[in-house]
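Good morning,

Attaching, inline, the backbone tokens for the sequence recovery test we're adding to the shared suite. The designed sequence is right after.
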């Protein structure tokens, strides 16, 4: 009796573990359907490792201001003095319009049409000169032997500044994301 109860308990645990694993696999499959191929590769844990280095960040996402919303902020002016803002922004848009880069919506991560990109550029209050934030998704590598650190950019997203009337407050409205080759 004791051995049959132990057998039934072990069987139940095995069945529950199998059901749980199937459920996780189905959730992962549904999630991977919304990811582009490069994100799927990263999520699968198989990004290309740079020779001689160790991956120290699988995917890290961070924002960088590329336009100073406050001209009196000397530190921000100093940090951005070497940036060619219009060259950066115009190059990304040019590559989108010529088909070299595919724009994706920020939240749904679906490919956008060129008509949608043009509509964004016609939004009241928008101008390329107001693109003030770029968001990077990267994989990071460190080579302890040579003391080098390398970043591999997966994607970049652009956002433009919006100021509220009667306020100095600025927020950023997302435009699109592009995945680099």
């Amino acid at each position: 009796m004791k051995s049959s109860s132990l057998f039934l308990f072990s069987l139940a645990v095995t069945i529950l573990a199998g059901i749980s694993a199937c459920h996780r696999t189905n959730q992962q499959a549904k999630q991977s359907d919304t990811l582009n191929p490069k994100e799927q590769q990263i999520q699968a844990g198989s990004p290309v490792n740079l020779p001689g280095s160790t991956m120290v960040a699988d995917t890290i996402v961070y924002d960088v201001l590329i336009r100073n919303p406050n001209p009196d902020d000397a530190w921000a002016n100093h940090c951005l003095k070497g940036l060619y803002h219009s060259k950066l922004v115009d190059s990304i848009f040019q590559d989108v319009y010529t088909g070299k880069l595919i724009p994706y919506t920020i939240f749904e991560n679906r490919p956008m049409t060129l008509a949608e990109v043009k509509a964004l550029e016609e939004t009241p209050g928008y101008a390329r000169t107001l693109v003030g934030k770029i968001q990077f998704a990267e994989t990071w590598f460190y080579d302890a032997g040579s003391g080098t650190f390398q970043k591999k950019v997966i994607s970049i997203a652009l956002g433009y500044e919006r100021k509220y009337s009667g306020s100095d407050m600025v927020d950023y409205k997302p435009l699109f994301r592009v995945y680099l080759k």
